[in-house]
Amino acid sequence: MPDKKKIAIIGGDGIGPEVTREATRLLEQYETRGLPIQLWQLDLGAERFLRDGTTMPKEIFVAIQRECSAVLLGALGDPRVPSMEHARDILFGLRFGLDLYANIRPVKALGDRVVPLKGRGKKDVDFVVFRENTEGVYVGVGGQVKRGTPDEIAINEDVNTRKGVERIIRAAFEFAQASGRKRVHMADKSNAMRHAHELWLRVFDEVRREYPDLQASHVYIDALCLYMVQDPSQFDVVVTNNLFGDIVTDLGAAFQGGLGMAASANVHPAVPGRVGLFEPVHGSAPPLAGKNVANPFAALLTVGMLLSHLGWPEEDARIEAAVADALEAGKCTADVGGSLSTDAAGAAVRERLFSS
Ligand code: NAD
Ligand code: IPM
Ligand code: MN
Q1: Domain closes at, from 227, 251, 268
Q2: Quick one: 131 and 175 in the same domain?
Q3: How many Cβ atoms are within 10 Å of 339's Cβ, its own excluded?
Q4: Nearest ligand to the C-alpha atom of residue 279
Q5: Domain endpoint, select from 235, 268, 301
Q6: Alpha helices for 68-145 (secondary structure H)
Q7: How confident is the model at residue 172 (pLDDT cuts 50, 70, 90)?
Q8: I need a surface site. Which of 31, 150, 196, 354 has the fewest CB within 10 A?
Q9: CATH number, domain at 242?
């Protein structure tokens, strides 16, 4: 029996615990059927923070780093914690602390019905966004001066390092090559952000030369939004910075049927086997919380990405097929045209995977 791969699970806030419960049930089925995994539930999030001030304890972070193969996260964000203090420590604590520089967000529609673009279907929506995940405006360099006065100044610097830009661009090309995708688009705003984003242009131009069989194109981020809506089928792999990647993947989620359908992986692809963080693209959706109505499919697809990371890519494909089948059969929640509850939609996918 090989060593069990340990998976830390953080449900988090709002709908996070509800969709993560379905993801956990799926993982438990795998465990019962002999997949060598071990689940570790962590009580972290807004509830815990409000109770005793805990965000991300150092010893838990160290245990994740040393012992875990993956972390599964629901979502963070609670109106009772407007500062997002806990979310920053947990989410950015893991993304930055584990140096998970590639946030991989597939934009793939699993049914024609859910694609909202006129005349388009699932065949047109299948690309992958590589979002830089450790730099940009997310690093927290900046500050507020003369706060609360008419002369107030508020600054967040856009931090771009040669190393950071190069490794995400390279990861995108490597992925394109390994997955048989032909085109890599790099999106920046180098026409306006001359200093910071000219670096992206230059590095992209250098790295693309190492992949002569791939088609490499530069596109400004504003035009990318236009082209995505006009014809998403022209994209295979899109690489961009932290902020733009955050925004365009919500736009991409709309092509997939909404945020309830969009999965993501935060990884350090240069070192295979390093712990990764897996989370749906969506947030905690406070208005839906506690009602058993949130769509669990993004969380289930995220489990697929997690299992693929652990060395079982065939399970990713099986989970995706089961979600697509449930969607097609209308065994889904209201946001994607069904009438099921969160747990019934989760059960519909498990039935399709494990009924025999
Ligand atoms: P959100 O993703 O929570 O919701 C945006 C829209 O998508 C809402 O209409 C919501 O109802 C819908 N939606 C999201 N997930 C859904 C699901 N599983 N099923 C059905 N509908 C779903 O974004 P928001 O409203 O901007 O943010 C709410 C909170 O979540 C904020 O605190 C935000 O900071 C946080 N947030 C956290 C993460 C994360 O933890 N990774 C991601 C995004 C937002
Ligand atoms: C996401 C979220 C986060 C981000 C927020 C909650 C800070 O929107 O994971 O997409 O911007 O990275
Ligand atoms: Mn986001």
Answers
A1: 268
A2: yes
A3: 12
A4: 1
A5: 268
A6: 85-87, 93-97
A7: very high
A8: 150
A9: 3.40.718.10
At 272, the pLDDT band (50, 70, 90 cuts) reads confident
With b meaning 16 or more CB within 10 Å and e meaning fewer, what string describes 208-227?
Answer: beebeebebeebebeebbee
Are β-strands 183-188 and 237-240 bridged in parallel, bridged antiparallel, or unpaired? parallel
Q: What is the pTM of this model?
A: 0.98
Average pLDDT of the residues of the chain: 97
One domain for residues 110 and 215:
yes
Q: What share of the chain is helix, strand, coil (3-state, %, to 5)?
A: 45, 20, 35
In terms of domains, do 253 and 109 share one?
yes
The pLDDT tens digits of the residues spanning 144-166 come to: 999 999 999 999 999 999 999 99
Q: Which two tokens stand for residue 176?
A: 């394109």
**Do 285 and 351 share a domain, yes or no?**
yes
Segment 281-333, tens digit of pLDDT:
999 999 999 999 999 999 999 999 999 999 999 999 999 999 999 999 999 99
- Distance, CA of 260 to chain centre: 12
Active site residue 250: yes
Residue 332 CA to residue 348 CA, distance in Å, equals 8
Terminal alpha carbon distance of the chain? 24
The domain of 322 spans 1-98+275-356
340 lines ligand 1 (CB under 6 A): no
**What's the Cα-to-Cα distance from 106 to each of 45, 248, 249, 266, 323, rounded to whole Å?**
26, 11, 8, 12, 15
pLDDT at position 356 over 70? no
Q: Same domain for 180 and 90? A: no
Could you give the number of structural domains in the chain? Answer: 2
Q: 206 alpha carbon to ligand 1 midpoint, in Å?
A: 37
